[in-house]
Amino acid sequence: MAASDIEIAEHNLQHHFADMDQQRETSTFGMWLFLVTEIMFFGGLFCAYLVYRATYYQAFVEGSQTMNIWLGATNTAVLICSSLSMAMAVRCAQLDQRKMMVILLIVTMLFGAAFLGIKAVEYHEHWTHHQFPGPNFQFEGAEAAGVSPQNVQIYFSLYWAMTGLHALHMIIGIGLVTWITIAGARGHYSADYYSPVENVGLYWHFVDLVWIYLFPLLYLISKKHGG
Amino acid sequence: MGIWAVLMVLTGVTVFASFIELGDLNIVVALVIATIKATLVVLFFMHLYYSSKLTKVTVVAAVFFLFLLLALSMTDYLTRHWLTNPMR
Asked: Which of A209, A214, A222, A224 to mutate to test the interface with B (most CBs of B within 10 A)?
């Protein structure tokens, strides 16, 4: 270890920790605790979803028919790819490969932006078809399918709330990745100190995880795709 | 890399499975695949497999309490029609 590295390590070690390992352990644990609160945060919405899906199953089937499965599946793949580049970036941080880490973080952000772009296309589609809950909500074919438009509206309320909250997390995630990309490019991290990269990575994977459940629950309710 | 390939394949499988009519089993298949994917992400992308016992216990506890939240709520909503309320 060069003298400057020791300096960095000592500089990064907060005085209330015994050593870097303990500090890293604590920081990761703290991040997991935060993610636990996030699980419960999304859990409330998933619970609401389950209750209404069980109560108005047919209306949820009709609502889910309007989803574009291919855009949803593409977005799932995009997020999995972003998780891979994120995991590789964390690996690079552990191995002190700064340049590669920065490249992979940028790739991660591009995947994240692609996800939001595809999501925006879907949102626009729903918006122009009056599939946004509120006074302008319209759902054609509800009568023919024998379901109440009001109940389909519940599906769309949950759709917008759940994917919207998820998209908000994506935006925050891209912000966080921007931050560690800049700090990483400036050489703030090393094999001894990369907790911010690790923790932002955990956050990123968590957001991917939420989508892994949102996709089948919102898009793939019934095989009656596209009528 | 291997994990990524498995996740991509499972995404394909879940879309494919949704086109097959399995009745009530569709949701089961979809959720089982999602849970396998989630477990892989948590264990390997999020390094839980290599984490300390404390972190593992925390994550398992979180999943357990999420399960409690969902399961106990559903024991209410799914069984309401089992009883007819004479007051209604």
From this structure: A209
Q: Which of B46, B9, B52, B77 is nearest to A209 (CA)?
A: B46
CB contact under 8 A, A216 and B77: no
Name the residue among B14, B45, B73 with its Cβ closest to that of A47.
B73
Establish, for the pair of chains A and B, how many residue pairs have beta carbons separated by less than 8 Å: 112
Listed by start position, the domains of chain B span: 1-49, 51-88
Q: What's the pTM?
A: 0.88
pLDDT digit string, tens, across residues A176-204: 999 999 999 998 888 888 889 999 999 99
Chain B residues within 8 A of A67 when measuring between CB atoms: none
Pairwise CA distance, residues A93 & A101, whole Å: 6
- For residue A14, being part of any structural domain is answered with no
Number of domains within chain A: 1
Look up the ipTM and state it: 0.85
Q: What is the CATH number of the domain that holds A47?
A: 1.20.120.80
Q: Is A24 inside a domain boundary? A: no
Full residue range of the structural domain in which residue A43 is found: 39-219
Helices (H) and strands (E) in chain B, counts: 3, 0
Residue A224 has pLDDT above 70, yes or no: no
CA distance A80 to chain B (A): 7
Spatial CA neighbour of A196 closest among A209, A183, A187, A210: A183
Asked whether residue A227 is domain-assigned, the answer is no
